[in-house]
Design a protein that fits this description.
Structural class: alpha+beta
Low-confidence stretches: none
Number of helices: 4
Number of strands: 7
Largest sheet: 4 strands, antiparallel
Shape: flat
Mean pLDDT: 89
Strand order of the largest sheet: 2-1-4-3
Order of helices and strands: EEEEHEEHEHH
Distance between the termini: 67 Å
Helix content: 10-25%
Number of domains: 1
Radius of gyration: 24 Å
Length: 171
């Protein structure tokens, strides 16, 4: 169907690394490291590879839904030096995690990173995902002019006090 607008929904697979640390209190860290442009047939938390000090796991798939009101944010992400997806992992038990969310919005990603308890990392956005986001932005973006809000002038009579601590009545 020619001329159809992009749906703004797509699924990504997330790869997470379990890295050994040289730390006396913590022996490893879980870190989102990559996004796959589609969900593979592997089961969530399948071991993908083992290297010196690092194990890679396929954490699972997440559906991302883009919103027309956020296209300026997506455009900012695409125009950056390194377009990214922000991945949040939520603790699900001792040394267990679940995918909490994945977002294309850099400002939402920044807000996620301010939370306590979740692991949030920006991972490189695959080219296939970047193309879908770009198509969505082109289809739905509406440039909105910036209007600076003017402050109301202060009512100095409302702030005035009479002798004895009484306030002047408003006229």
């Amino acid at each position: 169907m020619t001329g159809a607008k992009p749906s703004g929904r797509f699924t990504v697979g997330i790869v997470v690394a379990k890295r050994r640390l040289a730390n006396p209190w913590v022996d490893h860290a879980w870190i989102p490291v990559a996004a796959l442009p589609a969900a593979p047939s592997a089961a969530p938390w399948s071991l993908l590879s083992v290297r010196e000090g690092e194990e890679l796991f396929y954490a699972g798939a997440v559906e991302i839904e883009l919103h027309p009101a956020e296209t300026a944010h997506y455009r900012d992400n695409l125009r950056s030096d390194a377009p990214s997806l922000w991945v949040a992992l939520r603790p699900a038990g001792p040394d267990e995690f679940e995918l909490a969310t994945v977002t294309v919005d850099p400002y939402e990603g920044e807000a996620l990173a301010e939370g306590i308890g979740e692991i949030v990392e920006a991972v490189p956005m695959p080219d296939e995902i970047a193309a879908e986001v770009e198509a969505f932005v082109e289809a739905f973006h509406v440039e909105r002019p910036f209007f600076k809000r003017q402050r109301d002038r202060a009512n100095t009579n409302a702030l005035a006090r009479r002798a004895g601590g009484r306030q002047e009545p408003d006229e």
